[in-house]
Amino acid sequence: MTTKGEMDESLLEKREGTVDTENELTMWIEYWLEGELIHRSAHVTLKKPLIFIGGETASIG
Amino acid sequence: MANTQSMCTSFMGELMTGTHNFGTAPVRATGATDAFKAALYLASATVDAATTAYTVSGEVSGAGYSAGGVAVTMATPPTATNSSATAGVAFVTPSASITYTTVTLTTAFDAVLIYNSTQSNKAVSVHTFGSQTITAGTFTLTMPANTTSTALLRLATT
Lengths: 61, 158
Fold this sequence. Notes:
heterodimer; B: three-stranded antiparallel sheet; 1 helix; elongated
């Protein structure tokens, strides 16, 4: 799908990229038609979980 | 044998299922799993540890995107794994990717809020990523493996 509906991929300029950090792995893809962005999708894999860590239990006295 | 002061790992897992109540509990009509949703937020928004519930303020908008976001599949219940007399971890991860299909989101966004739509849209967690825009495309968030060390949400003692 593009902003102009379904199009023949062979008519379009395809650009792809990847970002790999400690927080995420992202892959994106774009399709351009005569200098106009008509499709962009992105796929993000979350790599950094959220964690609550409790240390030593407090003592009384 | 010896006794060891510690938070019980089973307790942490049971916190994730609402088993214990030290205050005023929400009224639950059934024992069914709550429904969770995921909303996307603009890079200019402020959703963080202070966020208490889903808000439309700062949420993305655009063709194909419905306010409130999409459902989060939580088919796998929380797991609590003990590793020693003092340490353990309870963890849970959505069991499927979170997908926004055929959307156009032209203003940069960089966060997703997971919230409990059964319990008054109360906030669960905020996850950030590099700023994105989507044009007549699909945005997918794939979850990490649901393990003691990589699960999306973990409560741990050391």
